Amino acid sequence: MEMFCLNESKTNTSIGQTNLEEIITRSQCQKGIFFSFELVRCKNDDKEFYKKIFSDTKDCSPLFYSLTWHNGPCLNDNYFASLETLPEFPNNILFHLAARGLKRNIVLKILHRAFELDIKNLFIIRGDGNPNDGDFNYAVDLIKFIKEQYDKKFCIGVAGYPNQHPESLSKEADLHYLKEKVEAGASFIITQIILESSSFINFVKDCRNYGINVPIIPLIMPILR
């Protein structure tokens, strides 16, 4: 389990399914700290496992819970199984979707079911699949498709790389691609795991200088022992 932490905000109390852009922006206008929890999807989507996690973390009053995507032999079935688990999650949910390997017709079915379940927030990543296996090579392609089909009905978050994406040619190229995702419709950024505060601070400065002005949330791994 991993944990995000965003500074300059207020600890969250109970909230319903809400657009994360709204509550993140509202929280940033207040002084304090909020947390959210990222959960790696467990085998067979064991509801009892999730219930224990929620029981153990409820006193932290997390702003939202995030459920990760992972590759597997039955990629599209995995999405639908995860979707049916989400109503068990308390307060706001951030549902991951990886672009590679997905077909347009499957994405439409996923979005339709997510909308039925009142899931309003999506975290879009490229994923590590073969670019020839689906209709979306990059996260920005999937973001554009979602916006074309559902306009502003979903709030979208994307990944940022303070230490540069390993496949990027340069830091500037990395910022260019990140800005493309924001201009396509992403409302906030969650970084890869931060080990040093300076890397996050410098990343935020670089983003602002490049014209990327959406909220940026650092991802940190809690010390367990």
TrEMBL record:
Its cofactor is FAD. Pfam families: MTHFR. Pathway: One-carbon metabolism; tetrahydrofolate interconversion. Belongs to the methylenetetrahydrofolate reductase family. GO terms for biological process: methionine biosynthetic process; tetrahydrofolate interconversion. One of its GO terms (cellular component) is cytosol. CDD domains: MTHFR (cd00537). Signal peptide: none annotated. GO terms for molecular function: FAD binding; methylenetetrahydrofolate reductase [NAD(P)H] activity. Keywords: FAD, Flavoprotein, Oxidoreductase. This is Methylenetetrahydrofolate reductase (NAD(P)H).
